[in-house]
Design brief:
two-stranded antiparallel ribbon; about 25% helix; globular
Length: about 200
């Protein structure tokens, strides 16, 4: 069964309260009703990223760097994020949250990803020569396949950080800049997320 992530953006206002920074898209129904739903800032299924965000989500080896165990939901989350969570509550797991500054720090400190799994005999030979597998599985009935672990240079946070950073720049009116969001503002922008299977 697959695992998906649900990411919501929040920004701290001048009064110190967190409010939604999500964007919405219209839902047009056959009966003419109009509704709005969140246009997710990120929705890709990336298990290496999931492990980086919450240790116990799709962790296949002890070498994978992680921000730690899920912290639960923030007590001061926006009413919008709370309402979204309430819709998922029975299916949601490993809820957590991080500021953009925390995501930047993890990204700077972790430039490799370690994978592990069962690979074919041919892939095992290629791995010995330095060619990393492009596919693997966590279990198989084929007893010729072997379990291996390998590390590759990869910024597992790049897609998520780019999407969250773009949203933060919109919120803080930082236009035409290729630089990161400044530290003071990166502390005032966060994601709240959970997973479902």
């Amino acid at each position: 069964m697959g695992c998906d992530i649900h990411v919501y953006c929040e920004v701290k206002n001048d009064a110190g309260a967190w409010r939604t920074a999500d964007r919405f898209e219209a839902n047009h129904y056959d009966d003419g009703d109009l509704d709005f739903q969140v246009d997710p800032v990120y929705k890709t299924r990336n298990y290496a990223l999931f492990t980086a965000l919450a240790t116990d989500v799709r962790r296949y080896n002890d070498e994978q760097a992680s921000l730690g165990e899920a912290k639960g939901l923030p007590p001061d989350m926006s009413s919008h994020t709370k309402a979204e969570y309430d819709r998922w509550e029975s299916d949601a797991h490993n809820m957590s949250y991080f500021t953009l500054a925390e995501l930047y720090a993890f990204q700077d400190a972790n430039k490799t990803v370690t994978y592990s799994g069962f690979i074919s005999p041919q892939q095992a030979l290629e791995l010995e020569k330095g060619k990393t597998p492009t596919s693997w599985c966590q279990g198989t009935s084929d007893d010729t396949w072997v379990h291996r672990q390998w590390t590759v240079e990869k910024d597992v946070m790049s897609e998520l950080v780019a999407a969250v950073e773009a949203r933060a720049k919109d919120e803080f009116w930082i236009f035409y800049s290729t630089e990161r969001v400044p530290p003071e503002q990166a502390e005032k922008f966060r994601i709240v997320f959970w997973f479902d299977n």
